[in-house]
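Write out the bound-state structure for S-adenosylmethionine.
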Amino acid sequence: MLYLVSTPIGNLEDISLRAIDTLKSCDLIFCEDTRRSSILLDRYGIQKKLLSYHKFNEKKSLEGILADLEAGMKIALISDAGTPCINDPGHILVAQCVEKNIPFTLIPGPCSPIQALVMSGMDTTRFQYIGFIPRNGTKKAIVQALSYPGTTIALESPSRIRDTLQEIVALDAERRVAIAREMTKTYEECLRGTAKELLAHFAKEPKGEIVLVIAGGGILDNLTLEELIGMLQELHGLTLKEAIKVAAVLKKIPKREAYNYMQSLKNLNN
Ligand code: SAM
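---
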């Protein structure tokens, strides 16, 4: 049986009794970084064989782990912090367990995106999680987030947060955002405000770990017709014809005007 075990995202006391029991009673523990996980295990007197399982060896180790699970071993998987599989290794293994009918479960616990969502105070009834904002394609990710009707949760590095806020400001300076930093740690803070306000707040690069939360909006008024049509095609899977129709409705312009505009762009590019 495979046990995915959530571990603290900062404060070592944020571990459940069941997580401790599971780690104590399993045959071995896979983790991303044995030195880092040893700190947690030492704290709770857990003495178990620790083996590394990280993004660089997760495919290679798969066969061995599956064989051990099929042989009846009780194996735990933890990541450096938080919930395995959430921007951490585990998913490939879980998918294989599903395929091979190997039993597995998740011992619930800390998960930074969910922690940040709650801390943000934003709508929790509808949300999307987009992981790390891509370095290539930041604008596209931001446009998608800003046009999503619910709350968006994204991971971001301190060195890039100001550039990302700048992208948001360029499209919608008044959009409400929250930045949850160093959650559960000594210097935990959650800043809430408009994108413009938080950009001004971070005159210098912040320190620590960050989750960015963006309030839901709707279609952006300040996207050009071309950008809007592109977004509807790319992010919502519409054909060009459908996208033009929807864009015309959203922009409150006649359909013909939208067609003509796209036609003029096509002529320009030919
Ligand atoms: N699986 C983890 C989880 O469930 O929280 C997420 C792993 S991901 C590789 C690490 C990222 O999560 C960090 O770069 C940061 O964006 C976010 N993160 C983790 N711990 C955090 C904390 N204490 N405060 C703010 N963000 C955190």
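---
The CA atoms of residues 58 and 89 lie 7 Å apart.
The beta strands are 2-5, 28-31, 49-52, 75-77, 104-107, 127-132, 151-156, 176-181, 189-194, 210-214.
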